[in-house]
Design a protein that fits this description.
Largest sheet: 7 strands, mixed
Oligomer: single chain
Number of helices: 19
Structural class: alpha/beta
Radius of gyration: 26 Å
């Protein structure tokens, strides 16, 4: 490589985006993985049981995995669930005939494990939980009973325990009719438990009016319990992750969320920013500010703002609440562990001994440190707050991933033929889920284009990513890039679009038609294979980034194996070289630009931290690249 080309490869661009230091979520997760190293045993000497509070913690850990790419968090989730899930998919200590909706909660962690690993034991376990919902007893209007031992009762808690799992399962298995049932649960709960005066929802409702805690006219429990409202709010924002955008009930759920948020804001303590154990009785004797409810409200509102379900004005509520949590409830012990104080251990209705739902009852339950429900909620809230702190440099931008030229399908274990390979929603090794998360963390909207690119659909995109177009080996009827596609794409780039071309090595990509597009910008994928790696000799795929690089100012050591090198003509310039080969290039064209790399190297296998040694910083590289792409960072090149 000539000195001039080397200079072009290593041009500097210094900027600041994120400090890689330990956050509150990481501190809390460290406590979790220290005090519950092998299991979440809360009572020494007693067998560990399948319990929903473990699932709350694990979802907090999952969020941290998504935002760091550190595989230790995934490993912890898997280890925790493997304590219960046997090879045949049976779940230790779980009984479906108890019809306890709490026991469905951990199904979301099992869905994650199935999506990431493809292991059928997790799929079978997930299906056991789904089968419980098929025969779970219901009220006369179709609302799930909280438990078989609590007949005719709906509790706010149950919405979080059942509905997010139900929605995610429906999304995976294309159970389109399930969404009406899911929406029904929220609508019924608000209809029966909602209070017109305060906007709050009562903890429980007994359709039969037989319980001693139930009002004989309304069937309602007497009080507005903070954590119950928290469960309800978290359920709403989590269900919306999987609720179809075009479903007629989606707007109803967002409207319910709006009413929920208004009530939560109304009862936020003005001085501390927190919320009380009994929400509407701030001045009543013995009432106290409670950690789990406060964390749940921060999580639900922050996530709703991030997804534009709520106006940005709620951000002030969120920040005041989170600051209050840190000030009032967080402490560091003599071992250096971060602990969460101030969580009520439990609160329920009925049972034996009987819980009458009175004010005195709610104030009688123990308040403890590091209760898993509070810890899990705090992890979720912290994840959201840390995401909100990432500069939204891609706000308003749409990133479109091609699914026309790359159009492979597979018969999945679910029984459905599914698109696969380098797609946003794929969580296994082959997908781009992690890269998509990084774009979303920067504020971008994700899109997937399954039709041919043309002027109408391209104009809706700011960044268009084409990855590893199909050869006949991968697709018996591949969609090749033809002259009309090239014209549409080049016109779009010249008008200001950013095109990302991710190739592949020799034998794993269709080169002829791809190169016709790439050559329009002075770039050609060589039909070769560089950095061939033998087994786990990862050093053979190492690429070192020079100091003050134009793009990778955080990531210093990348991993890329079996990539196609690039050949360039003006206006294309080398962006990164390795061992005499051009690995990445950029080309200015009109008002836009093209970025090219010889491999889809930022797919999950090499960004989610489960496989690569920690010295390889592909996750940081994804953050660096996204930040650069959304800013069209051509200065100095």
């Amino acid at each position: 490589m000539t000195p001039l080309r080397l200079l072009l490869c290593f041009t500097a661009c210094i900027c600041t985006f994120r400090i890689y230091s330990q956050s509150w979520s990481q501190k809390m997760a460290n406590t979790v993985m220290t005090i519950w190293k092998d299991s979440m045993q809360m009572s020494p000497g007693k067998p560990v049981k399948w319990a929903y509070d473990q699932g709350v913690v694990l979802e907090g850990i999952e969020g941290l995995w998504n935002s760091t790419g550190d595989g230790k968090y995934f490993n912890y989730i898997q280890k925790s669930m493997d304590l219960f899930v046997r090879e045949d998919g049976s779940i230790r200590s779980y009984r479906s005939d108890e019809y306890n909706i709490d026991h469905v909660k951990n199904g979301r962690s099992l869905l994650l494990l199935y999506k990431v690993t493809g292991s059928t034991k997790y799929l079978k376990a997930v299906q056991r939980l789904r089968d419980q919902l098929r025969t779970h007893p219901r009220t006369s209007e179709g609302g799930f009973w909280h438990k078989n031992i609590y007949p005719h009762q709906m509790w706010l808690d149950g919405l979080y325990m059942g509905e997010p799992f139900y929605a995610e399962y429906a999304n995976l298995f294309h159970e389109d009719t399930a969404y009406n049932d899911i929406a029904r649960q929220f609508i019924l709960m608000e209809r029966h438990a909602g209070d017109d005066k305060t906007g709050l929802l009562y903890h429980g409702w007994d359709e039969s009016r037989q319980q001693k805690w139930a009002n004989k006219t309304t069937g309602l429990s007497p009080h507005f319990w903070g954590r119950a409202m928290g469960w309800y709010g978290m359920a709403l924002v989590d269900v919306l992750d999987y609720f179809p955008n075009n479903h007629p009930k989606r707007d109803s759920l967002i409207t319910i969320l709006g009413r929920f948020a208004a009530a939560v804001q109304k009862f936020q303590d003005a001085k501390s920013g927190l919320w009380y154990q009994i929400l509407d009785k701030a001045t009543a004797k013995g009432n106290y500010l409670e950690a789990s409810a406060s964390s749940m409200f921060v999580y639900a509102l922050a996530k709703a703002v991030r997804h534009d379900y709520l106006p940005a004005s709620y951000a002030s509520v969120v920040h005041k609440g989170y600051d209050g949590i840190i000030k009032a409830f967080m402490e560091t012990d003599t071992q250096g562990l971060t602990n969460l104080k101030g969580t009520v251990s439990v609160a329920g209705l009925g049972g034996n001994p009987y819980r009458d739902g009175s004010y005195e009852y709610y104030l009688s339950e123990k308040v403890i440190t590091n209760d898993p429900k509070g810890v899990g909620a705090f992890l979720l809230a912290s994840n959201e707050m840390e995401l909100s702190a990432i500069p939204k440099t891609a706000k308003g931008k749409t990133v479109t991933l091609d699914n026309f030229f790359n159009n492979e399908t597979i018969k999945a274990a679910t029984g459905f033929t599914e698109p696969f390979h380098y797609l946003w929603e794929e969580r296994d090794n082959n997908g781009f889920f992690v890269l998509g998360q990084v774009f979303q963390h920067a504020g971008a909207r994700l899109n997937q284009l399954s039709s041919a690119p043309g002027p109408d659909n391209l104009k809706q995109s700011d960044i268009y990513i084409i990855v590893d177009p199909d050869s006949k080996k991968e697709n018996s009827k591949p969609n090749y890039i033809d002259p009309d596609h090239i014209k549409s794409i080049t016109d779009w780039v010249n008008a200001g679009g950013t095109l990302v071309l991710m190739g592949n090595d020799s034998g794993n990509m269709e080169f002829e038609h791809v190169n016709r597009l790439a050559e329009a910008f002075g770039i050609r994928f060589n039909e070769d294979s560089k950095n061939r790696v033998l087994g786990s000799q990862y050093e053979m795929g190492k690429i070192t980034v020079p100091p003050q690089h134009a793009v990778f100012h955080s990531a210093r050591q990348l991993y890329m194996k079996e990539f196609s090198s690039l050949a360039l003509k003006p206006p294309a310039k080398c962006l990164l070289g390795d061992k005499g080969s051009i690995v990445m290039a950029v080309s200015k064209s009109g008002k836009g630009m093209v970025f090219a790399v010889g491999d889809p190297w930022l797919y999950n296998e090499y960004t989610d931290g489960r496989k690569l040694p920690a010295e390889y910083e592909n996750y940081k590289a994804a953050e660096d690249l996204v930040r650069w792409l959304v800013s069209q960072g051509l200065s100095g090149l």
